[in-house]
Amino acid sequence: MSIDVLQNKIRKLKSPCMLSFPAADHWLPEGMGYEQGAAAVMEALKDTVPALRFSLAGFALQGEQGVALLRSLLSKAKALGYYVALDAPAVWEEAEAEAAAASLSGELWQYDALIVSPWAGSDGWKGYMPLCRQGKDIFLTLRSGSRSAAQLQDLLTGSRLVHQAAADQASHYGKDHMARCGYSAVGGVSSAAAAQINSGLRSKYKNMFLLVEGYDTKGANAKNCAGAFDKFGHGAIVCAGSSILTAWKEGEEGLEEAARKAAQRMKKNILSYIQLL
Predict the structure, then answer these.
(1) Alpha carbon distance, N-terminus to C-terminus of the chain
(2) Is 276 inside any structural domain?
(3) Deepest in the core among 61, 86, 88, 191, taking most CB within 10 A?
(4) Strand-pair partners of 190
């Protein structure tokens, strides 16, 4: 399963870091095209960052050109050896999820994991589950990294918080898709600004791999992310974006070198709170 591949890449590079590429080009130096800049960053980080993240909807909103660009970036990322996560569009019915999964099958879309929304209930995402039998991973957004997430995702519903109810669903569907590394192919997304939530998820869902997003957001830091990892430093990865991609704006270094140093700092910060064996 792909989750084994991800855990092995993290251990090999001693780096539990993921880089998210936005669809917009605001992070690029003037005069540099998107594909050129993204390819340069991918090449510079291939020995430091094991995983990349892209949003299908973000690129698709740019039309055929955006979709073609995304496919090219996915292909480049896979050729360089990255684990690739793709944010899937939110759907509301099981048939829509099944159709989306069918469209995202095959060699046109080169990725390892889909990030999906659970907020329509299981009908909105269980149609993606057949992809697990094709070696793909599925991450449900349990507690997002957005600043307003607590307005809905931390509300009490019965004896659980809403994000815990979503985690229970992920755990239920994931138990039949366990990988050799001890984690399920059905994982969860959590927030880099929510230390107690990360620790709570890790404590209760011992077989759930966690993608901790929002490392760049206000209130987020490496210490908050540490609770998402198990005692061996396994079972989680932390996702950043602008802190790496726009690091060149803070000094005289070029895009690639600044991104590489920023990624190394992120790695060092996280490893100061966990022991990755």
Answers:
(1) 20
(2) no
(3) 191
(4) 212
